[in-house]
Amino acid sequence: MAITGADRLMQATSFHGNLPLVRRLEAVGFRAWPAASVVYDGSWQVRLTGGHPSKRLNCVVPLDPSDYHDAEVRIEKARKRFEHYGRPLVVRETPLAPQPLLGRLAQSGWEPFETVQVMTADLTVLELPDTLDHIPSHDVGRFIDVLLAVQGDDLSLKPALAEILTAIRPATGFFTSEHATDGPLAAALCVQDNDLAGILSFAVLEGRRRQGIGTEILSAALRWARISGARSSWLQVNADNAAALALYRKLGFRNAYHYRYWRQKDSTV
């Protein structure tokens, strides 16, 4: 039986698995959630966004397992850059991170503090509704209003989120669910990058979870992506979010790899 590109996306199941897959998903992830400032120190990507505290937008991401020379000097250089932005230094460890670098971080008083699971699904075989219950919008402002309301986030984040979302270059679909009297119920962002579709900023109002709303809006986003030409989908979810993991697995997502963040033990991240 022939192995399709979508099949290959499902083959990486361990932390040190399919590095080409990791590189591709990291690349589309960067494009799907762009930082305001991106500079490179060798193969280390230094991402900073002054207006938004997201760790994914404010971290150092080593992208070559062999690139760990002058690590102490480069870490200190990054620290100064983060201080200029008023941010604590955070390192994001993926399977592409050099193991000697992680060893040096541990010896220098750093510690991992959050693990995120990256999952993929083959859209060519996923069972999805025949019709779209939710039509994607291109109204960035409205989407942000719904997302902030559903997540209970500070409204002051709206300008930064607007800057991030308008900076996304691949095709985007903003999906929202609202009730006439109850207001915003759910939100999901789908970013289609060639044959890959990423699900980001997915949230369901706390009091309306486990009622099928999340499945409904995610299914609509995935069907839109498939109609638009995507063959595979990916997403990122905190490894301790059991409810979300169960929902994604039910929909057909499987583990691809995980990453985690590192900070110094006295950091306030």
From TrEMBL:
Q: What's an example of a GO molecular-function annotation for this chain?
A: acyltransferase activity
List the EC numbers from the record.
2.3.1.-
Q: Give the PROSITE patterns listed for this entry.
A: GNAT
- State the UniProt keywords alphabetically: Acyltransferase, Transferase
| Broad EC category | transferase
Q: Where is the N-acetyltransferase domain?
A: 130-269
Q: Which Pfam families match?
A: Rv0428c_C
The source's domain of life comes to: Bacteria
List the protein's name. GNAT family N-acetyltransferase
Q: Which organism is it from?
A: Rhizobium lemnae
Q: Which taxonomic lineage does the organism of this UniProt entry have? A: Bacteria, Pseudomonadati, Pseudomonadota, Alphaproteobacteria, Hyphomicrobiales
